[in-house]
Write a structure and sequence with these properties.
heterodimer, A: alpha/beta, Rossmann fold, two-stranded antiparallel sheet, 11 helices, 10 strands, B: alpha/beta, 8-stranded mixed beta sheet, 5-stranded mixed beta sheet, globular
Chain lengths: 267, 382
């Protein structure tokens, strides 16, 4: 199918600002799903609140646009009730690890077969550019006018520590790799986390001396490196991208099926 | 005929009734005094292929049942005061998205952590107005195990009929009182199944376009119709809209579908009401005490009656107004500072004849508590 077969064209043009990276992520998601050959009726897209969450309205799947931070909790209900469906949850950084942080770590711990895509633009975009848990120390936002004193999460380490069985990071500059990673994440049976660095030139960029989207994309090119590269050893501050973990572990719905079996044997 | 008789507590009656009504999915978080519902269902649900999940918190439990409901299953969660507060945002989401679900709140004394193991009826108004924004809600309650069973099945039925969350507002006394429960035979109590759309694949399906009778047939997530569900104001396809006409229409639909069916939703029990001069209005465990007083005084020839409300919201305005008009004096018996009392005063022909007999110290309301008020009203001392 063509890309346009996956979108709800009547809602375009989308609401994202010029230069926003979210459209790139959406495009890559569509291509990953197309490559996997999953039927549209078998996909449920669940989102929370924020710029990233608007993806739901634009894509022609079963779409559930929920509450700020709670997308994974809704997705857990859908998935456990209908395990045969493919669940994809696009989230923003505030959505995923601030207000939704508890749901995020517990979904990871359960290893429920849901793909969480964290579109990390380092800022609350929908509300006009306040600092998030991924803004970074020293950076500026509308609520950190003197510079941010909050330390950031390392989303990858957080996901690994919480027990996610697939964890990856990529950026909107690395689109080919993003499609590839998303394919693997969606196909993976278990909780998959993909952190995608995506540019917000309008709010994060303007406050932090980025001239525009291109400038930010170049930053992703120069400030990231494949996992375990020589560059990383030489420049430890570089952000690693790639797949950090991809392991087969007991998946929640499969485990629950065993409970059903056990409960009926006991009868 | 051999009857299926159990000796159980109210929480168990609720769980049994949920299963009777066809519960497929339960998500919850442990909290006193509702936990037994979760415990029982964690054991029973998998036996019938249903799903139980203990979520990480109260908020996610509420969210998970909404997600599960959208796949076409009957869902429930159970909690108490503090958890009920936490669920409010998602209850509003269920209201807005017209997702059937049942929320049990076994009330304990509050505010805050309050008295976790004591009875109270302090959440009547939270059930009505807990979630933000203008909306209507259905709230049912019960005073004994048999009624807990009946009202729980009713909650599922109303939830499916009106595509709305329904709150079961029990209290600690009812939930933990052990007494007889007769499980009805299958078919003895009507069970309403979900109304599914007959629109065929490839034809435009409108998830939010009411039929002539106001009902909205549903399509399951994972089915042949792909549509959007959002907490934003939305059009008949479920897509966000800020169009004033659409917003106005949706607001009216959400409120009217419930307020406009108040009589249909009203469940009331009447005891000695016909010739009553003094009328008690009560609900939940308080109604047990009120009924005791009524029966006792009737034996002495005093004309007391009891109106036991089982539907609290939408408040049965016409019914209560009518009954109030035919008596000399109305005494609302409840375990709070007058949450239903004020509603009754609002609808009574003469608000000055409406009195409150209550108990708020965590102990169960006794006949003496009621009689003390009655004596004052009757001018027999203070």
């Amino acid at each position: 199918m063509a890309v346009r077969d996956y979108i709800r064209e009547r809602f375009f043009p989308h609401i994202w600002c010029p230069g926003c990276g979210h459209g790139t992520v959406m495009g890559c998601m569509i291509r990953a799903i197309e490559n996997l050959g999953i039927k549209k009726n078998d996909i449920v897209l669940v989102s929370g609140i924020g710029c990233s969450s608007r993806i739901c309205g634009y894509l022609d799947f079963h779409t559930l646009h929920t509450l700020h931070g709670r997308a994974l909790a809704f997705a857990t209900g859908v998935k456990l009730s209908r395990p045969e469906l493919t669940l994809i949850v696009p989230m923003g950084d505030g959505d995923a690890v601030a207000i939704g942080g508890n749901h995020f770590i517990h979904a990871a711990r359960r290893n429920i077969d849901v793909t969480a895509i964290i579109m990390n633009n380092s800022v609350y975009g929908m509300t006009g550019g306040q600092y998030s848990p991924l803004t970074g120390y020293g950076n500026f936002s509308t609520t950190s006018p003197y510079g941010n004193i909050d330390q950031s999460f390392d989303t990858v380490k957080l996901a690994l520590g919480a027990g996610a069985s697939f964890v990856a990071r990529t950026t909107t500059y690395h689109v080919t790799s993003m499609i590839n990673i998303l394919e693997k994440a969606i196909a993976h049976k278990g909780f998959s986390v993909v952190e995608i660095l995506t540019q917000c030139p309008v709010y994060f960029g303007r406050k932090n001396e980025f001239a525009g989207a291109v400038d930010m994309l170049k930053y992703y090119r120069t400030h990231t490196t494949p996992i375990g590269s020589k560059m990383k050893k030489k420049y430890p501050d570089l952000i690693e991208r790639g797949i950090f973990v991809q392991e087969e572990r007991p998946e929640y719905c499969t485990e629950y099926d065993k409970i059903i079996k056990k409960a009926n044997e006991e009868r | 005929m051999k009857k299926n008789i159990l000796f159980v507590q109210g929480n168990e009656a609720c769980a049994e009734a949920a299963l009777y009504a066809g519960l497929d999915f339960f998500a919850g978080y442990p909290i006193t005094p509702s936990t037994e519902i979760a415990e029982l269902l964690s054991y029973q649900l998998p036996k019938r292929g249903g799903k139980f999940i203990q979520m990480e918190d109260e908020l996610s439990s509420m969210c998970a049942i909404i997600g599960a409901s959208l796949t076409g299953t009957k869902v429930m969660t159970a909690t108490s005061g503090p958890g009920f507060s936490l669920k409010q945002e998602a209850i509003g989401f269920a209201v807005m998205t017209e997702t059937p679900c049942v929320i049990v709140n076994v009330q304990r004394a509050g505010p805050s952590t309050g008295l976790p193991t004591s009875g109270s009826q302090g959440d009547v108004m939270q059930a009505r107005w807990g979630t933000h924004g203008e909306h209507a809600i259905i709230t049912l309650t019960a005073s004994n195990n048999q009624d807990v069973f009946a009202m729980t099945v009713e909650a599922f039925n109303l939830s499916e009929t009106f595509r709305t969350p329904v709150i079961l507002l029990f209290d600690e006394v009812v939930a933990h009182t052990r007494e007889r429960l007769i499980i009805p035979e299958q078919g003895e109590i009507n069970v309403v199944e979900r109304l599914k759309t007959s629109v065929k694949e490839g034809t435009d399906y409108h998830p939010y376009l009411p039929r002539e009778d106001g009902r909205l047939p549903m399509s399951d997530f994972g089915g042949v119709h792909r549509f959007n569900v959002t907490g934003l104001m939305h059009d008949m396809w479920g897509f966000p809209s800020t169009n004033p006409k659409i917003v106005y229409g949706l607001m009216h639909h959400l409120v009217d579908k419930i307020q406009g069916h108040t009589r249909e939703i009203t469940r009331i029990k009447e005891f000695f009401v016909d010739d009553a001069e003094y009328l008690f209005i009560s609900y939940g465990s308080s109604a047990r005490t009120a009924l005791h007083v009524v029966k006792n005084r009737r034996a002495r020839g005093e004309k007391l009656g009891l109106l036991e409300l089982q539907t609290l919201w939408p408040f049965p305005v016409d019914f209560v107004a009518e009954r109030c008009a035919s008596v000399d004096c109305v005494i609302v018996v409840e375990m709070n500072m007058g949450q239903i009392f004020h509603e009754v005063r609002k609808v009574s022909d003469a608000p000055d004849k409406v009195f409150l007999a209550n108990q708020i110290d965590g102990s169960f309301i006794t006949p003496t508590d009621i009689l003390n008020i009655l004596r004052i009203i009757q001018g027999k001392g203070s």
